[in-house]
Amino acid sequence: DDKLLTEPLRHPDFFNVKELFTLKDLFDARVHLGHKKGCRHRFMEPYIFGCRLDQDIIDLDQTMQHLQLALNFTAHVAYRGGIILFVSRKRQFCHLVESTARACGEYAHTRYWQGGLLTNAHIQFGPGVRLPDLLIFLSTLNNVFEPHVAIRDAAKMNIPTIGVVDTNCNPCLISYPIPGNDDSPAAVELYCKLFRMTIIRAKDKRRHSEAVEELR
Amino acid sequence: AVGRVLRLCRRWGAGPRAQTLRLICTTTAVHRKNAGASGPEKYTEAFIKKQIEEFNLGKRHLANMMGEDPETFTQEDIDRAIAYLFPSGLFDEQARPMMKHPNEVFPEQRKIQWGEDGRPFHFLFYTGKQSYYSLMHETYEKWLNVQKHQDQLIAQDLPVQKEKRNLAGSRWLTKIELEEILLEKVSDDDYSRFIKLLQKLVALPCADIEDKYIQKFSREVPVQLQKVVIEPLQYDERGVAFSTGEGKRKTARATAVVYDNGTGKITVNGIDILHYFPVLQDREQLLFPFQFLGRIGKHDTVCTVSGGGRSAQAGAIRLATAKALRSFVTEKEVEFMRQAGLLTVDPRVKERKKPGQEGPRRKFTWKKR
Question: Is residue B242 within 8 Å of B295, Cβ to Cβ?
Fold first, then answer.
């Protein structure tokens, strides 16, 4: 059992997430398109490649690195049987995110966030509830273009977060930010597909390893 | 907290009053956590299973005690047996001893929603309102299905059907019915949002595909129109046409049988009206329907009346005779009778006395001092 858990940590890319996407896939899904110059957040400037006709373009090389780190982390969390919560407050993609979560066997929250969900969980849900081990934000802003409350709450509860940060978002409290577009349907579908594939892959690998251990 | 308060006092008293320590008492009630706000206790699956086993065993024991067959011992038998073995004079039904199936005693929503490893069963558990949001998710999925189907039809250039569904006889679920289905509290906003989504789904032309799903949330409204049926004339052994009517006024209830080819005789409880109603006003009330229709000497009436006082009985018989006369008369005359107020039940009853007043309206005498 100990060997099952320590073996994946020895390799930098145990689950081979690099092969799931290429730079061309990101470009075709319009991940590099940011908001206009006026909406730019100060902390997003390192991730921006340039500005064309007032529209910010996100540096896809950096996005590739960040995305790979994030997918690797999700795979490890899913391998260890952690609870993953998909969060997004975009009405357009609410159904898509919930279906993705259901397909992976993980959880989703794309509705109004009640104040004490993470910080007051034992009173809201009952004693003995298990909190999520990872939060994935498909969009870090809520409907009034302010940072989602869950980012701050997860930081308070020591829960690691992965978030797709657009040029108007604040990447500060997110453990694994992924600079990229969060408004185009193509981009969000790509992210959902990638997360779904990594989680399913990690879970299959875990079942496979457990079966191999049992046979011994 | 008491220690903190003592220290503060010592710090403040820097002058000649430094020696005195003022003790401010604080009770532990201030620091006791509100146990009620921690939410209801959750029950595990294993606990509920054990309760069901114990209940079944107890049911068999009870049947043996009462000398009945354990196999055919129903819930009503259990209730009767418990009421017999543990008689209770308590007024509140819910305070009396009861033995019910654990599924009724332990409400469903209080069962623990996660497995042994801590992973919740439902994928929307962390939203807080899992049943409601999963319902919204499902309904939205149906809406997307219908849209896709519509797009396919348009792509194939097929006509899109638009049947007028009869929405007049149906209504949507009420908020309370929805709460019962979801086993969760639903706020007014959430309920209205769900109904709007359903209406959006129904408004699509190809919504017939999801008809079965929509019917789960609509209920029939019973047709409230009830045309008053005027009974036809009946004939007794002598061949005389007669008709019956019922009437009431205050606490009096009356039935009247009006015979044709009569002499205008009226009998009440076997007594002639001249003896039963000495007062002229009551007899006038009885004769009013006949006078209105101009049929004074043409009908015989036999009535029975009970309850109420003198006027109330007269009014009740009047209504009963008017109702009976409907069968002898044309529809136009029935309408005239209705407009004259002969066919309407008088709704006036004695008003109750209110506390702080001497009667229904009379207040106590106001004294200046």
Answer: no
Domain span at residue B71 reads 45-105
| Cβ–Cβ contact B33 with A under 8 A | no
Chain-centroid distance of CA B26 in Å reads 50
In a mutational test of the B interface, the residue from A80, A95, A119 whose CB has the highest number of chain B CBs within 10 Å is: A95
Strands in B211-308 per DSSP E: 218-220, 234-235, 241-249, 252-259, 266-268, 271-272, 300-306
In a domain, residue B226? The reply is no
Reported as a single tens digit per residue, the pLDDT across A177-200 is 999 999 999 999 999 999 999 999
Instruction: Report chain B's mean pLDDT, rounded to a whole number.
Output: 85
- CA A194 to chain centroid, in Å, comes to 10
Considering the entire predicted model, what is its pTM?
A: 0.69
Does the structure's ipTM exceed the value 0.90? yes
Which residues are CB-contacts of B315 (< 8 A; sequence separation ≥ 6)?
A: B247, B249, B250, B252, B285, B346
Q: Which two tokens stand for residue A139?
A: 């969009």
DSSP tag of B232: P
Domains of chain A (ranges; CATH) run: 59-114+130-215 (3.40.50.10490)
Is A87 in contact with A138 (CB distance < 8 Å)? yes
Q: Is residue B68 part of a domain?
A: yes
Q: Which among A83, A95, A109 has CB closest to B140?
A: A95
pLDDT digits (tens, 9 = 90+) for A95-128: 999 999 999 999 999 999 999 999 999 888 888 8
Say what the pLDDT of residue A177 is: 96
CA distance A76 to chain B (A): 17
With an 8 Å Cβ cutoff, are B133 and A126 in contact? no
> Does B211 have pLDDT greater than 50?
yes
Residue B82: its H or E element:
helix B75-85
**Domain membership flag for residue B242:** yes
